[in-house]
Design goal:
Elements: H1 7-42, H2 46-97, E1 101-108, E2 111-121, E3 124-127, E4 134-136, E5 141-145, E6 150-153, E7 168-172, H3 174-178, E8 184-189, E9 195-200
Antiparallel strand pairs: 1-2, 1-6, 2-3, 2-4, 5-7, 7-8, 8-9
Length: 205
């Protein structure tokens, strides 16, 4: 019998290499299984997608009126408060400069515009410097209930053309009236120059 030096060592080495190969193959198979499982979890079936779309549609129908109410309320609030701020500014300028100031409203087309004017000379009115004429969105119903559509302030800050029967500016949103929400924003100027802001329900017209 011929004995080959190192044969047992070579045989053991082959066994170890086979075991390493089996372990490596097993790890690859487990990794592939995990990847396939993760891919399966990440996917959505057609039924799940349709259910999700249906839920979103129902929620949109439920919340749509509230969203529209909020947007419309903010719009009319912004327009009314812009008028209020303009009146306050005209009063402040009248007191500051000791000259009569007025806010003049004019119907233009289907809407209204307004500006601050100063009486530089008797019966000579000019738009004050730095003031851009503003407009009221035509979608609102507007009622300027002041003599000649003018609110005039004296150098003492009083309403110079005050009338107990004509002292309000009202904006109405027909959309809010349809949803049975407070649809009017009323600005009231009193004789002493104070200005009130009122949220009211005017009803459908």
């Amino acid at each position: 019998m011929v004995i080959v030096p190192g044969a047992p060592i070579f045989s053991e080495a082959k066994k170890i290499m086979k075991n390493i190969s089996r372990i490596s193959q097993h790890k690859h198979e487990r990794a592939r299984t995990r990847d396939n499982s993760a891919s399966a979890r990440k996917g959505f079936t057609l039924v799940e997608i349709l259910v999700a779309v249906g839920i979103i549609g129902i929620m949109a129908l439920v919340f749509y009126p509230n969203i529209m109410n909020t947007l419309e309320s903010r719009k009319i609030e912004g327009s009314a408060r812009e008028i209020l701020i303009t009146l306050q500014r005209a009063k402040f300028q009248a007191v500051k400069t000791k000259l009569n100031h007025r806010v003049k409203f004019e119907a233009v087309g289907e809407g209204w515009v307004y500006s601050i004017e100063r009486e530089d000379n008797p019966n000579e009115w000019n738009i004050i410097r730095g003031f851009l004429r503003k407009s009221i969105p035509s979608e609102f119903q507007v009622d300027i209930d002041f003599p000649d559509e003018i609110v005039e302030f004296s150098p003492l800050g009083f309403v110079a053309n005050y009338s107990s029967t004509q002292n309000t500016i009202a904006l109405q949103s027909l959309k809010l009236a349809t949803y049975d929400k407070p649809d009017q924003r009323v600005i009231k100027a009193l004789a002493g120059g104070s200005i009130q802001y009122i949220i009211a329900e005017g009803g459908k017209k």
